[in-house]
């Protein structure tokens, strides 16, 4: 359902029981929860996700785990099926021939039975108290959704991999994204990592916009807030997200995210937060000044000054980040920050230049065929 549709918003009392009764001795007092995880070609990560969820301290008879496979061509589906045989009926496996993130989430949501529905990622692991902690926070606060802070871990323990993980957790890298930079207290936010939603949130505000191949989670959370809903970040539980470990992969993903931030303007009133447009502003100003500089010397000087200012900022924040995460990361950080910012801005600029075009198959190619859609929010990184 698109973001332009208006939904009636009514503030209701918490549907689950109070924290004291919800986490007592009788398991029947626990609300039933559904975990929805779209996935495609995730054989390297899917076992860790499954083990992480099966190790949750939430009562096993009060939860279900729904995997929605996007026509995987590796062993992802067979691996999930093996766990399904061992843990039936708790693990459910659905097909998603469309292979896109929002369709996968919506299929899982429509199949789910839970009063609380978690949208989770195939690249993440979770603290053992994740489900119980989020349910407790929903009960205590009456919020429509609660998610966590994401701790970013490198896919490979290399200097470049660690540098990418560090810049994805730094304010200079991702702006004022609370779920990435962290918070010491539970607080309101515009998005959160792997949140648990009350079922009524989808009934009131619609489901994920199936035209938005990427960034659909951010659009939905902004839609929820626009119509009066509340989403919180709770630092007492943690998502451990495994990020990309090569600069080329980071740059490609940044371009895709930047493209869909602007492309989403065709599909929703508020597809992104203001911080998502900062790379577009940076790249646009640099290119405009450089182009004008071909004809006018002062513009060339301005373009040089802007480039030097950005380079100085990269150097300064790379020094700060390397001091925190290890001085050996300085050189890869000097490359990681531009690989995060500049392709993102170029992707947004390209989407702006082609915004008038109707959606085509190329949009899904730009979204990436791998489309590990469970990277929800975390992968988008902001």
Taken from the alpha-carbon principal axes, the silhouette is globular
CATH topology of the largest domain: Spore Coat Polysaccharide Biosynthesis Protein SpsA, Chain A
Rg, Å, rounded: 21 Å
The biggest sheet, with number of strands, parallel, antiparallel or mixed sense and barrel status, is: 9 strands, mixed
- Give the helix/strand class: alpha/beta
Share of β-strand residues: 5-15%
**Helical region count?**
15
Regions with little confidence, pLDDT below 50 for 5+ residues: 1-27, 368-381
Question: What would you give as the CATH superfamily of the largest domain?
Answer: Spore Coat Polysaccharide Biosynthesis Protein SpsA, Chain A
Q: How much helix is in the residues? A: 40-55%
Verbal overview:
- With 382 residues, the protein is α/β, with parallel strands linked by helices.
- It is built from 15 helices and nine strands.
- Strands 1, 2, 3, 4, 5, 6, 7, 8 and 9 form a nine-stranded mixed sheet that branches.
- Mean pLDDT is 86; it is low at 1-27 and 368-381.
- The chain has two domains: 32-243, Spore Coat Polysaccharide Biosynthesis Protein SpsA, Chain A (Alpha-Beta Complex), CATH 3.90.550; 274-366, no CATH class.
- Strand 2 (63-69), helix 3 and strand 3 form a beta-alpha-beta unit.
- The chain is 46% helix and 15% strand.
């Amino acid at each position: 359902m698109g973001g332009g549709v208006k939904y009636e918003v009514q503030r209701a009392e918490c549907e689950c029981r109070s924290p004291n009764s919800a986490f007592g001795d009788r398991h029947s007092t626990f609300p039933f929860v559904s975990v929805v995880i779209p996935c495609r070609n995730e054989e390297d990560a899917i076992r860790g996700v499954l083990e992480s969820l099966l190790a949750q301290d939430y009562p096993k008879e009060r939860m279900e785990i729904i995997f929605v496979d996007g026509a995987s061509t590796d062993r992802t589906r067979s691996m999930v099926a093996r766990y399904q045989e061992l843990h039936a009926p708790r693990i459910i496996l659905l097909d998603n021939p469309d292979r896109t993130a929002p369709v996968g989430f919506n299929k899982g949501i429509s199949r789910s039975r839970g009063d609380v529905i978690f949208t989770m990622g195939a690249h993440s692991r979770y603290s053992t108290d994740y489900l119980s902690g989020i349910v407790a926070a929903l009960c205590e606060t009456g919020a429509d959704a609660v998610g966590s802070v994401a701790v970013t871990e490198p896919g490979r323990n290399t200097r470049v991999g660690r540098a990418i993980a560090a810049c994805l957790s730094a304010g200079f890298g991702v702006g004022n994204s609370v779920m990435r930079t962290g918070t010491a207290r539970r607080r309101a936010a515009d998005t959160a990592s792997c949140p648990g939603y009350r079922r009524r949130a989808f009934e009131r505000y619609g489901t994920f916009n199936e035209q938005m191949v990427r960034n659909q989670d951010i659009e939905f959370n902004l839609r929820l807030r626009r119509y009066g809903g509340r989403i919180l970040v709770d630092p007492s539980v943690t998502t451990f997200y495994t990020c990309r470990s090569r600069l080329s992969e980071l740059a490609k993903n940044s371009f895709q995210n930047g493209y869909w931030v602007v492309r989403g303007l065709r599909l929703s009133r508020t597809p992104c937060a203001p911080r998502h447009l900062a790379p577009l502003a940076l790249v646009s100003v640099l290119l405009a000044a450089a182009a004008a500089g071909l004809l006018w010397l002062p513009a060339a000087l301005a373009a040089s000054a802007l480039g030097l200012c950005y380079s100085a900022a990269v150097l300064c924040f790379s020094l700060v980040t390397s001091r925190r995460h290890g001085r050996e990361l300085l050189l890869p950080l000097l490359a990681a920050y531009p690989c995060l910012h500049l392709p993102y801005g170029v992707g947004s600029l390209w989407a702006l230049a082609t915004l008038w075009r109707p959606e085509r198959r190329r949009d899904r190619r730009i979204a990436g065929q791998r489309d590990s859609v469970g990277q929800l929010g975390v992968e988008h990184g902001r």
